[in-house]
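Table S2 (continued). Query chain:
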Amino acid sequence: MKPFCGERLVALDVFRGLTVALMIVVNNPGSWAHIHPPLRHASWHGLTPTDLIFPFFLFIVGVAISLGFSRRLEAGALRSDLVRKIISRSLIIFALGLFLNGFPFGLVGNLRFPEFLAELRIWGVLQRIAVCYLLVGLVVVFMGNKGRWLVMTGWLLVYELLMRLALVADWGAGSFALEDNFIRLLDLQTLGAGHLYHVGAVAFDPEGLLSTLPAAVTTMLGFFTGEFLRQPKSLTTRLHGLSLAGLLMTSLGWNLALLEPLNKQLWTSSYMVLTGGLAILVLAFCLWVIDIKGWRRGIQPTVVFGRNPLLVFVGSGILARILYLIKMTDTAGDKISLKQAIYDGVFEPFAGPANGSLLYSLSFLAIWLVLLWYLHTKNIHIKV
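Corresponding output:
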């Protein structure tokens, strides 16, 4: 069987769909106080299955850049047209991230609009995706493979040097602690504490400026993986190569963790290498199952999620906040959110705290599956 359906790589849609579905489950528990450990991020250093979602998605973005842009460049597309597309798409995605951060824009509660603007978080998941897409897209358009490898290496070296050199007293110098790492210092100096995410009382943004560089390396790894898949070799040969590369990177990442901690919020080099290796292995597995073994039964739900990732990310974020904003009165006369009322009244009594929380998130996922399936049957796929 051929791995490409038209211009699409079916296994990549499946991989993307699995990643998006897991993201929805993780981001929408019935209760944040009752979550099964694998569905939590590591508190700081460490790695859980949840910490794989974001690097997997950025890796997939990189593969998609290869499958889209390389083909257009080979067909003689104008670089200026591609650059305009890259910039406009990046700006739209970044703006959607700001929209999610700001929703509902101080219109609910006692926060006035000027105060809302002063506290608006600038960075976020979509913002990081936008910046990584911008950086990798421009490098791909303007440079050959040698230049791409050099730039990717340069991003990683800049990150390591800034994290490890004693450039500012009491900051950095090899610190990977929450309070005094260079990522936090740079964000505080450029944006101020009011525009950052807060971990407890500490202003620190897990999608900060400096840590976007190794995240862009993750995206570039996806690009090179896509380039490898486009080679005119048998799929079996390509899968052998991917599997070997994935195993080597995974092993290297575990060993690098002895020198630099695995940390998703800092996007450390060890974390980048390890998750990049695992992403390659998962994509290779999807290709093996779907295109070597010919397994297509049951993959449609993942394809449905994989074809509309932006819609489900933005839409699920808005819906989750609406469920928080709508208030109800419980039997004790206290004001609670509609989400809490649903969890307390339906899921927690039925399955218990943790399982009820998981069941709530799976129900949330099922609602989106129905909506996305309908849109898919109508060939409606939201793109920018």
